[in-house]
Amino acid sequence: MKFLKNLGLVLLLFILLAVWVVLPWQGALILAALLALWMFVFRSGMQTRSVAAVGISTLTQRLGSSAVIVVGIAGVVGVLVSLLAMAEGYGQTLRNSGSLDTAIVMRGASANEVSSSLTRDDLVQISQAPGVARNAKGEAILSAETVVAANLPVKGSKTDDQASAQVRGVSEAAFAVRPNVKIVQGKSFQPGLRELIVGKGALRQFDGLQVGATMKLGNQPWTVVGIFASGDAMESELWGDATMVNDAYRRGNGANSATVKLENPAAIKAFGESLENNPQLKVKAMTTVEFFAKQSERMTQILRIIGITVGAIMAVGAVFGALNTMFAAVATRAREIATLRAIGFRGLPVVIAVMLETTLLALVGGVIGGGLAYLVFNGFEASTMAAGSVGKLSFNLAVSPQLLWEGIKWALAIGFVGGLFPAVRAASLPVTTALREA
Fold first, then answer.
1. Are residue 91 and residue 225 in the same domain, yes or no?
2. Residue 287 domain-assigned?
3. How many domains does the structure of the chain reveal?
4. Could you tell me if 91 and 129 lie in one domain?
5. Pair 260, 357 in one domain
6. 424 found inside a domain
7. Of 281, 315, 349, the domain-final residue
8. 101 assigned to some structural domain
9. pTM across the whole model
10. Which helix (H) or strand (E) holds 395?
11. 317, 155, 167: which is closest to 241 by C-alpha?
12. Where is the ABC3 transporter permease C-terminal domain (predicted)?
């Protein structure tokens, strides 16, 4: 019978934790309000408040044991939020790279720009599709772009290590389809010349990219003439004239992709259907928001899995720390709890009071851990490792309010589990036995 009781308790615990994981902060506030209402209106709630007040008032006498819970949970939350901030920052950087009124066109079966190819005829037909915005001269606002990789020396490396940087050949319309790109130092490249502008992220990652520096791309000398900022993934790239990049890498007169300005966000439907229904084209079109969201999806999932796995491993240790601490705390208060039950206090108020004490310590630990993660890692500069022909991506870690809430939820969940079993034991222990143990 005892085994079935314990099994039921464990199953209930898993159900409650599953619900808690998906609970938004509004739901948590509602639960807190209902708990407060119960504690001030109902008799059993008032008993809970009395028992909890006594336990919380003695926390100052148990600073050492209480600190075990707070520090353990703060460590879990701090590490968890910091790791998840990598995924959040990476995803934000790529999502910021797109907009709803621009579209990217690639070869139909291509997963990314590097594996795509468009001919000159393809580019002409794409520019004539309905929904494409036009400038004052009536020309389609379309940037035919070539993406290649260049190995550059990593900044700060003492062993002359090199990594892959992404070089993008663009047309003059690139600044019209990406108005957030601004030259912050030097000037823009001139069409027809081997000149480059470098993103701020690439400048931080690689050596030899300051204005006036020369470098080799495709065995040809190029000059860095400017630095640009965009606040997105483009900052990790080097830009030059598409015709000159094609010539340096012997790419002919085609491109990897075409980025177009749409008349309005709703124009993507007519634009995409026109290209798909064109028998001479085998291309696919999507908004740049959708494109970059897909590009970030896999890496974001990997980073989240790593963060949650590490956090879960640390959480197990924190739970055991909380269990040991609360079992010890309950044992020292066995006589007090037994006396309360002897004079009419029921088991439920005792259980909830002990759990409130643990939850309060867990909340303090969660706030400390989340706060430290925000102060240390929010905005922290990081970069991905280059893979294959894809260059390194520079991004800033982002500790968002949602991540802080996730950290608080983990903290409260650890406190809930760590306090539940000691609380149940305190409430279910026979009064006579509790008095003898005390």
1. no
2. no
3. 2
4. no
5. no
6. yes
7. 281
8. no
9. 0.76
10. strand 394-396
11. 167
12. 309-430
Q: Verify that 49 and 172 share a domain, yes or no.
A: no
Helix axis angle, 334-342 relative to 43-57, nearest 10°?
A: 160
**Of 258, 281, 304, which marks where a domain is finished?**
281
- Determine, yes or no, domain membership for 102: no
Same domain? 357 vs 259: no
Q: Measured between alpha carbons, how far apart are the two ends of the chain, in Å?
A: 27
Pair 378, 253 in one domain = no
Q: Which domain holds residue 203?
A: 109-281
How crowded is residue 436: how many other Cβ atoms within 10 Å of its Cβ? 11
Q: Are 102 and 301 in contact (CB under 8 A)?
A: no
- What is the full per-residue pLDDT of the chain (438 aa) written as tens digits? 555 555 665 676 677 777 777 788 888 889 889 988 988 888 888 888 887 887 777 777 777 778 888 888 899 899 999 989 988 888 888 877 888 999 999 998 888 888 899 999 999 999 999 999 999 888 999 999 999 988 888 887 766 777 888 999 999 899 999 999 999 999 999 999 999 999 998 998 888 899 999 988 888 899 999 999 988 888 889 999 999 999 998 888 889 999 999 999 999 999 999 998 998 888 999 999 888 888 878 888 888 888 888 888 888 888 887 777 777 766 666 666 667 666 667 777 777 887 888 888 889 999 999 999 999 999 888 777 554 444 567 788 889 999 999 999 988 888 888 877 777 776 676 666 655 555
Q: What is the pLDDT of residues 66-87, one digit of tens each?
A: 888 888 889 989 999 998 998 8
Residues 261 and 381 in one domain: no
Place of tokens 């490792």: 385
Nearest alpha carbon to residue 368 among 408, 310, 409: 408
Q: Give the integer Cα–Cα distance in Å for 264 and 84.
A: 35
Q: Where are the alpha helices (DSSP H) in 22-62?
A: 25-41, 43-57
Please indicate, yes or no, whether residues 355 and 419 belong to a single structural domain of this protein: yes
Q: What DSSP assignment string belongs to 278-347?
A: -TT--EEEEEHHHHHHHHHHHHHHHHHHHHHHHHHHHHHHHHHHHHHHHHHHHHHTHHHHHHHHHTT--H
